[in-house]
Amino acid sequence: MENFDPIDLVEEAILDFSLGEEEVAEGKLMNAVNLDRDCLDAWRALAEVRLARQDLTGAHTACEKALVIAPEDLTAKVSLSRILVAKGDKEGAEKATAEARILGWKEELKD
Fold first, then answer.
1. What are the phi and psi torsion angles at 74 (to 5°)?
2. CA-CA distance, 9 to 53, in Å (whole number)?
3. Domain spanning 6-110 has what CATH number?
4. pLDDT tens per residue across span 58-79
């Protein structure tokens, strides 16, 4: 029986990715975002899977979609920085890193 819960698909995709099944993971994450366009976890994971597959444009697109859903998401900001480094966008990466650092400090201050 197929799984139609986006979060379950994300969890399955993370397992697939950890086992080296990057293409399978990407397919499950695409299914997850097609089921729920606002699934932050799916967009975040998709960005990381695509980065690992050297699909920098796809990774950037997925990360930007995550940031539209949650503009102050620390995980997505860190991913964006890593993607921009891989793309050779030093200025953009530095900006994203600074924004991530500020978000991290905000998280620490909450605790």
1. -60, -45
2. 19
3. 1.25.40.10
4. 999 999 999 999 999 999 999 9
